[in-house]
Design a protein that fits this description.
Elements: E1 2-4, E2 7-10, E3 13-15, E4 18-22, H1 32-41, E5 46-50, H2 53-56, H3 72-81, E6 85-89, H4 120-137, E7 148-152, H5 164-176, E8 182-188, H6 191-197, E9 203-208, H7 212-222, E10 229-234, E11 245-247, H8 250-262, E12 266-273, E13 284-286, E14 290-292, H9 311-323, H10 333-336, E15 345-348, E16 350-354, H11 355-360, E17 365-367, E18 382-390, E19 394-404, E20 406-411, E21 414-420, E22 428-432, E23 436-444, E24 460-467, E25 470-471, E26 475-480, H12 486-489, E27 503-511, E28 517-520, E29 526-531, E30 534-540, E31 547-550, E32 558-566, E33 573-577, E34 585-587
Parallel strand pairs: 4-5, 4-12, 5-6, 6-7, 7-8, 8-9, 9-10, 10-12, 11-34
Antiparallel strand pairs: 1-2, 2-3, 13-14, 15-33, 16-27, 17-26, 18-23, 18-26, 19-22, 19-24, 20-21, 20-23, 24-25, 27-32, 28-31, 28-33, 29-30, 29-32
C-alpha cells in the first residue's frame, strides 16, 4: 500500500481500509474460522490483530511458542484465505485491556529499566522478542503474496510518553526484522496525542469513538497528504468488575462510523469480535484504585462473544456497503443460525481442599521483608505470606503498605478480613493478646495494569506490613502459579472442606453432545473456574458479569469435569444457563470514555 494527496492506494488503485479487530488469543482456535467467516459477512476487507507477547512467552526460561492456540501464522493465513487483508500490531505494548499491556512481567521487572523508552535495558528486551516474532510474520507479507499489508509501530504512545528516539528505534527494529509493508503509528484523535506519539515521516492513524470529522480536520492540518484512518473506532466498550455493563446503541455507533466514512476515511472497528479474557489474562486500569477487567471481552461488539450477529452487526454492515457503493447482500443462513447451546441445568458440587491448606502446601521462601510477585518470579496468581507478629493487648490495626491488589487475612487460623489496594494502608482492626500470633496474608493479583502511568507496577506486598506503626519482619512466602496444570495444583493439600468456605469445589457434567454454554455461580463469592482442566477465567459476585461463556470446544461428549477455586464463600452447585448474562446495562457514549 501507499498514499498521496490524502488518498490510500493498493496495487496502484484507490483503496479504503474497512477493517475489524479480532484477537486470536481471545478466541478458541477451533472457532477462528467461524469468527473470520462472520467478519467477512460484516463487509470488511481487513482483519486487525494485536500480538500479545506474554501469550507466547509467559515464562523467562521458555522459548516463544507459536504452536496450537498460539499459531499466529495459521490465524493470519486463515484470514488471508478468506479474502481479507491483515494488519498486525506487534507492540510490544498493546494495552487491549490485556494483562500488563501484553508484556510478560519477567521481561520488565528490572527496577532500573525505563519502560517504553529508548533505555537500552528496555530495547534489548524488546529486540530479543522481535527477533523471535518477526520471522513468523515476514513470509506472510503482501510482498510475498501473503495477506499482511501493514504493521503498527508501538501503540498509542502519545498517551504515555514523548521519547521520539524510542519510536524511531521501534520502527527501525521492524524494518531490520524484514517488515517491508506500510508502517504506521496510532494515537488519540487530538493534537495532544499526536504531539507525543507520531513521527514526521510515518503514517499517523487515529483511535477514537466519535468526532471523526473533527479529527479528520486535525489530520488535514497536522498531517497534510496523509489519508485519514481510524485504526480503532470504539463502537463498544469493556467492563470492570463492580461497574455496570457498558453498551452503545447500534444506530448511534453506526452513525459515528459513517462520519469517518463520509470524509473518505478508512476505519477499523474495535472490537468487531471481542472474545474472552480466558484464564488470568484480563488486565486492569487504575483510577485511584485498581479496576480489574472482567473475563468477558464481548465489548458490545457487532459479533458477540459467542458469535451471535447483533443489531450492531447489521447497522455497521449497512454503513460499510453504502460507503463502498455496494449492493447489500444477504447474510448466509448458516451464520444467522445461533450456535447450539446446552440445556439449562444445575451441577452439584462437592467441597474439596480448603484454601489455606492449598496455599500452605507450596514451597516457602524466607525473607526479612515481604517479597513481591516479581521477586518471587511469579507473574499471575497468589502469594501466601506468613509471619509471627505480636498483636497488642486489645485492639490493634494490621496495615499493608504497597498492597497490590487484594489481601485475605487470618490471625491464628481465624479469618480476620479483606484489605485491598485502597484500604491496605488504613488497615484492618483486630483484637490481640500481647503474645506472638500467626499472621497469614494471601494476596491475589487481579490483573496487571494495562494503561496509563502506572503500567508496569508490581504485585504483592511492595513495602511492608505494620502492626499499628511497627513493622513485622521475617516472613515466609509461597508463590502459587494458578496457570500450572490443574492436576499439579490439586496435588497440594489433603484436608477436605467441612463447610462451604473458601477452597476447591468439584463437579461433573455429562452431555450427549458438546455445545456452547454459560456458567453461573450463584452463592459463590470470588474465584476461578476450570472446565476439563482449562482455566476458563475469573468470576465475582459483585458483577456486572453473571455468566462465563464456555465455548463448545472446551466440552466433550460424555463426562466433563468442573473445578472451582473459591476465595471467600462457596455453595453446593453451579448453573449452566442458555444465554449470556453480562450484567445491568449502563448505556455509555464514547464521548464519555475517551
Amino acid at each position: 500500500m501507499s498514499y498521496a494527496d490524502r488518498q490510500l492506494f493498493k496495487n496502484g488503485e484507490p483503496h479504503r481500509i474497512i477493517a475489524g479487530a479480532v484477537h486470536y488469543f481471545r478466541v478458541h482456535p477451533d472457532q477462528w474460522q467461524d469468527r473470520i467467516d462472520r467478519l467477512v459477512a460484516l463487509g470488511v476487507n481487513t482483519l486487525d490483530t494485536y500480538v500479545a507477547w506474554n501469550f507466547h512467552q509467559p515464562y523467562k526460561d521458555m522459548a516463544p511458542d507459536f504452536s496450537g492456540w498460539r499459531d499466529l501464522a495459521r490465524f493470519i493465513t486463515l484470514a488471508g484465505d478468506a479474502g481479507l487483508d491483515v494488519i498486525v500490531r506487534p507492540g510490544p505494548y498493546i494495552c487491549a485491556e490485556w494483562d500488563n499491556g501484553g508484556f510478560p512481567s519477567w521481561a520488565i521487572s528490572n527496577p532500573e529499566m525505563v519502560l517504553r523508552s529508548s533505555d537500552p535495558l528496555f530495547t534489548a528486551a524488546v529486540g530479543a522478542w522481535f527477533e523471535q516474532l518477526l520471522p513468523v510474520i515476514e513470509p506472510l507479507q503482501a510482498c510475498h503474496g501473503g495477506p499482511v499489508v501493514a504493521l503498527q509501530i508501538e501503540n498509542e504512545y502519545g498517551s504515555y510518553g514523548d521519547d521520539q528516539a524510542y519510536l524511531r528505534w521501534n520502527r527501525q527494529a521492524l524494518r531490520d526484522g524484514g517488515m517491508s509493508e506500510m508502517l504506521f503509528t496510532a494515537d488519540g484523535g487530538t493534537d495532544y496525542f499526536l504531539d507525543g506519539g507520531s513521527l514526521p515521516d510515518t503514517w499517523a492513524t487515529a483511535t477514537l469513538g466519535s468526532r471523526g470529522k473533527e479529527a479528520d480536520e486535525i489530520w488535514e492540518r497536522r498531517r497534510p497528504g496523509e489519508p485519514f484512518f481510524t485504526v480503532e473506532f470504539w463502537n463498544g466498550w469493556f467492563d470492570h468488575w463492580g461497574e455496570d455493563h457498558h453498551t452503545r446503541p447500534a444506530l448511534e455507533a453506526a452513525a459515528e462510523a459513517k462520519n469517518v466514512l463520509d470524509v473518505d476515511g478508512s476505519i477499523c472497528l474495535y472490537m468487531a469480535h471481542g472474545g474472552t479474557n480466558f484464564g488470568l489474562s484480563a488486565g486492569a486500569n487504575h483510577d485511584g484504585v485498581i479496576q480489574p477487567t472482567v473475563t468477558s471481552y464481548d465489548s458490545d461488539a457487532p459479533i458477540a462473544e459467542d458469535g451471535r450477529l447483533t443489531e450492531k452487526f447489521f447497522a455497521m454492515r449497512e454503513a460499510f456497503f453504502a460507503a463502498e457503493g455496494r449492493e447489500l447482500t444477504e447474510v448466509p443462513d448458516a451464520l444467522l443460525r445461533p450456535a447450539p447451546v446446552l440445556p439449562a441445568t444445575t451441577v452439584p458440587l462437592t467441597a474439596g481442599t480448603p484454601l489455606l491448606d492449598f496455599v500452605r502446601a507450596a514451597e516457602p521462601v524466607a525473607s526479612v521483608k515481604p517479597l513481591s510477585f516479581e521477586q518471587l518470579g511469579l507473574d499471575r496468581g497468589l502469594v501466601h505470606y506468613s509471619a509471627k507478629a505480636v498483636l497488642p493487648q486489645g485492639e490493634g490495626t494490621i496495615k499493608i503498605r504497597g498492597l497490590h491488589d487484594r489481601a485475605y487475612i487470618w490471625v491464628d487460623n481465624v479469618f480476620a478480613g479483606i484489605l485491598n489496594d485502597a484500604t491496605g494502608a488504613d488497615g484492618l482492626k483486630v483484637n490481640g493478646s500481647g503474645v506472638p500470633a500467626q499472621l497469614e496474608i494471601l494476596v491475589e493479583n487481579q490483573g496487571r495494569i494495562n494503561y496509563g502511568p502506572l503500567f508496569g507496577q508490581g504485585k504483592g506486598i511492595l513495602d511492608g506490613v505494620l502492626i499499628n506503626q511497627r513493622y513485622v519482619f521475617h516472613w515466609e512466602q509461597r508463590a502459587i502459579d494458578l496457570e500450572q496444570p490443574l492436576e499439579e495444583l490439586l496435588q497440594r493439600g489433603t484436608a477436605a472442606v467441612t463447610d462451604l468456605g473458601a477452597g476447591f469445589f468439584h463437579g461433573e457434567l455429562t452431555v450427549d453432545e458438546s455445545a456452547d454454554s454459560y456458567v453461573a455461580l450463584p452463592g459463590f463469592g470470588k474465584g476461578l473456574i476450570w472446565i476439563n482442566g482449562f482455566l476458563l477465567g475469573r468470576y465475582w459476585e459483585i458483577g456486572p458479569q453473571l455468566t462465563l461463556y464456555v465455548p463448545q470446544p472446551l466440552l466433550t461428549t460424555g463426562r466433563n469435569t468442573i473445578t472451582v477455586l473459591e476465595f471467600e464463600h462457596g455453595a453446593t452447585a453451579l448453573e449452566l444457563r442458555t444465554e449470556a448474562e453480562l450484567g445491568a446495562v449502563g448505556v455509555t457514549y464514547v464521548e464519555d470514555l475517551g
